[in-house]
Amino acid sequence: MPIVHTCNAGVQNGAARCRKTVISDQTAPRPDRCDLHQGNGWVSAPASTTVLLKVNVNNRWWNVLHAAGVRTLVRTFARAEELEQKHVAEAAALGRNAYVSRDQRDNKQTPESADSGCPTFGKSGLADEAVDIHGLVTELFAAGFVLSAAHLLERGHKPPVRLVMEFSKPSEKAALRNFPWTTFRQLVNTSFGQIDVWANPKQDGKVVHTVNCGKRDDAAKPQNVLHFAGGDWSVEALSAPTLGELLAERVVAS
User: pLDDT > 70: what percent of the chain?
Assistant: First the structure.
């Protein structure tokens, strides 16, 4: 399966990730650099210091997470407009257009469609790829991150509600206590039909990567797995089921 990646070279003296894309196949080694950044002498994209994992939730999951103690934060339209102008200014400082990195999914043009970073898997992200993310948190822990904050984000101008989890290095923020991990594992024990990963530019010495997960489909079987890959992000195709597994499924179904 062809996968679109952004080049992992740094631009603006390593302040941001290159926005140009390269295409690889899951059966071949991933090409890390675009045609403009071949050879030696190029700095790498800045490493992430914070990862935001965002998972869309419906009313049932909102109730479950709320009952488990996850607080809800409301973002107003005015706050969204403030964030838009912030992203526009950050993009301009890098010589970038804040409105060219998304596809046409955000057709209502809400204020949060402006970006200073780049979509790691291209404008369309991982669309209709049946992606499994259940092992991502384990990979973040192994990379030295801790869960430092969590909340449910409600935006009247841009539904649905999202579970937002912030992973930070322990030198930056302390680990959050009493998070409902069992409930979270149940939430992500599914297949996601839309995954977008954003690599944002360095701001105040910090680099935030954002993982947006939507279009959950509990009836679908995951076909691919998302990996942190040291902040470069990658997708691995799950192996095809064996004949024995297919026969076992048929027995269970009958």
Answer: 87
Q: Tell me the CA distances in angstroms from 122 to 7, 23, 204, one per residue in order.
A: 10, 10, 26
Find, among 97, 96, 122, the residue nearest to 11 by Cα: 96
How far apart (Å, rounded) are the C-alpha atoms in residues 140 and 125?
20
Task: Using 50 as the pLDDT threshold, list the residues of the chain that sit under it.
Answer: 245-246, 254
Q: For the segment 87-127, what is each residue's pLDDT rounded down to a tens digit?
A: 999 999 988 888 887 766 665 567 778 888 888 888 889 99
Residue type, 78: A
164 belongs to a structural domain:
yes
CB within 8 Å of 234: residues ≥ 6 apart: 30, 226, 227
Residue type, 195: I
- Please report the pLDDT score of residue 254 as a whole number: 43
Q: Is residue 30 part of a domain?
A: no
Asked if residues 178 and 100 have their Cβ atoms less than 8 Å apart, the reply is no
The three-state DSSP-derived secondary structure of 132-164 is ECCCHHHHHHHCCCEEEEEEEEECCCCCCEEEE
- How many domains are contained in the chain? 1
pLDDT for position 226: 93
The burial class, CB within 10 Å (0-12 / 13-18 / 19+), for 168 is buried
Q: Which two structure tokens, joined as six digits, stand for 133?
A: 């993310």
